[in-house]
Specification:
This is 3-oxoadipate enol-lactonase 2. With about 550 residues, this protein is α+β, with helices and mostly antiparallel strands. It has 19 helices and 18 strands. The protein has 2 domains: about 5-240, 2-Layer Sandwich (Alpha-Beta Plaits), CATH 3.30.70.100; about 275-545, Rossmann fold (3-Layer(aba) Sandwich), CATH 3.40.50.
Length: about 550
Amino acid sequence: MSAPGILYVTIQPRRGLPPAQFHEWYNNEHGPARLRMPHIFSSGLRYESRRAGPEAESGAAAGAARRFMAVYDVTAMRHLASDAYGALRAGRSVREAATMGQVDVARSCYDLLFAKQAPRFAPLESLGDGDGAAAGIVTVAVAVATTAAPRAGERYRTWFVDEHVGMLAGVPGWLRSRLFKTSSVEAGAEAVSEYLALHDYAGDHGLGGAAHAASLDTPWRRDVLDECVAAEHRRTWSLLYVFGPAPRDLAALSALPRTAAFTSADKRTSTAPGPDAAISSYATTADALSIPYRLQGNPSPRAPTVAFCNSLLTSLHMWDPLVAILQRTRPDLRILRYDARGRHPIPQPPVSATLDALAADLDQLLGALRITQLHALVGVSLGGATALNFAIRHPRRLAKLIACDFNAASSAANTQAWKGRVAVAEGDAGRGITTLAEQTVARWFHPASMAKTDVVRCMTDMVAANDVQGFKHSCTALWDYNMEPEMRACPVPALLVVGEGDAKGALVKAMDGFRGMLGQNGAELRIVPNAGHLPMCEQPQAFWEAIRDFL
């Protein structure tokens, strides 16, 4: 068995590399690429120190003069010698190769020897952006004098475990201490005796206080340092950024010129820099489904986030008209859209989707983007049912719910109708999805909307581009479900919205029938005139007026 450990990196941009360019590359390309390999990297944290120390020669101490540090938790150090990790480094993008040529960097690998944490310790990767902003870490790199003292390394480790950590635990704000040693995966590791200690502290720490000073001034520590330690380099860092598997740094991106746009080699990630910064990328679910998303709006990581869940057969672009209004009228909001399960090919062998699976997809996407709570979740049709189910399953993950044009329970007739639509999509010698698109848009849209030929054409093309097998195995989420028994206990404030002509008015009656079941006081139902199943596409301004005060 290979020990777990860390990859420890110190890095200093050279003069001429703009800070925003450096941070945007690091946060939106380099870090996420590693966190997308969870079998290797379980977390990745970036730190900054504004106080440079003396130059050093090797290992962790080599970072003494570098301003930035990153530490990646590695599940098993042998993975760093694997082909998968090697391919990651060998397959650098042109941008990454150019950026790496403009920085001074040192990497070291360490095996974990010991760890102890406070009861209140929570991994920073489990918190939302800003929740651990004041957190800090102290790094202590120690070179052991193996030639001067027998068993020097063992003596240092014994002191650290048996005395030092116990005393540090009494320092206000102490959260965790870990001890590492140069990893066996490092070339020439057998000739190196370097230890690295990482001490995590909360923002309200007592570093420099009496308890901390006492931990650094004991007879045992003095003996160990005098007899066993050749050199010790100590440095304090503040948390700068927590990597996730999905790029999300709009702040650095917004500070770049439009000419700094980036598209990955696989075309799955692209950035639009400038004042209207946007990131288009993807997250991966537990069952290996790839979920495309688009993040834009207010670039602050603390900005309230509104997420949008599309209807079956459509893409995240169905929200384009409404998003344009939001960006003009609500610049305080960060906006997240994604393609719900069913839009694209699904993992094989296929598994029929459920509303719980769709709620889990959203939960995993938010986790990948480190969004602990949404300001609001807006969903329509299948997205409306998903949004309500998400509010029921994860009420602490959102503050408000807007659910549109959906039913709280399915019917046998509805299930049969979906089976018939699957048959249409699979038929007609491969043209079935086009036929279904034409039928679907005619069924969805209000007669007044059908006169808007550009809107009709755009929506028809969007539906026709859906993956047929994805649709087949995802429309099952709308079969045989009933959320009504759980709606009363849902504590999330909710607004229901419906197009006046949806299902020729039948859905207005249906939603009016169950709105009183939602929460302790029921939910308000608002009707958008001259709209059918997708009021935000057919009448975006009227839809916005319907939700403006609630949002």
